Fold this sequence. Notes:
It contains six helices and eight strands. By secondary structure, the chain is α/β, with parallel strands linked by helices. The longest helix is centred in the last third of the chain and has 14 residues, at about 140-155.
Amino acid sequence: MIFVTVGTHTQGFERLIMAVDSLVGQGLINEPVTVQIGNTKYEPKNCAGFRFESFEHILELNRTADIVITHAGAGCILTAMQFKKPLIIVPRYKKFGEHVNDHQCDLAAALDKKGKAVVLYDINGLLDALERVKKLQQEEGSSKMVEYLRKYLAEIGIGDILGRRV
């Protein structure tokens, strides 16, 4: 199962949700897909979707997913990494009205540099990213990567992720 999550940000993420839904509709993604659409206005027609669920349910979806596709929100990334899931990160962009600035690109780039996720800056490469992420194995160093990420977030001024001080 592929789990797609856009977190709880107040702006939608149509670009990601529409791209996933389109690939499923074209038969290019054959495995089951569950999409957390949050405040996105577009509702998927070809895969299961919901806006918000309990944190426990989100944890379960991350635990049972084979692949996680997420925006570059720190909480979503940390959750997927805690379960050592192959991860595709799609940062939100200010120019598309997906966020107030482009800070998600900085976090995505830091993880991309470490080779711990497939980062997708152009949504048209989603199918290729799915093929690449299947080859990316989350090794035992994932817990070290979570710690690295927490320290990085503390450095840029985000002090509380998933209810824990970083």
